[in-house]
Design a protein that fits this description.
By secondary structure, the chain is mainly alpha-helical. The protein has one domain.
């Protein structure tokens, strides 16, 4: 489960990075370069981080319920 959480956080970071690059302003028009990619990247990044955060209590409960090694 820990690997899934890490992978979701990495994917969320990449999605936010794509959104940041897509949101640059064009000097000629003063508008955002790709508004739809900015919105999709921001949404996917937030969704990945939210899902990873929702899985953290599940992972924590799994680790505390395991017996201690002898």
């Amino acid at each position: 489960m820990g690997w899934w959480i890490s992978a979701l956080n990495l994917l969320g970071s990449v999605a936010f990075g794509v959104a940041a690059v897509a949101s640059r302003y064009l000097h000629s028009t003063g508008e955002i370069a790709n508004l739809s990619l900015t919105n999709v990247g921001t949404f996917l990044g937030a969704l990945c981080f939210f899902t990873g955060a929702a899985l953290l209590p599940v992972e924590s409960a799994r680790e505390t319920s395991r017996p201690a090694p002898s």
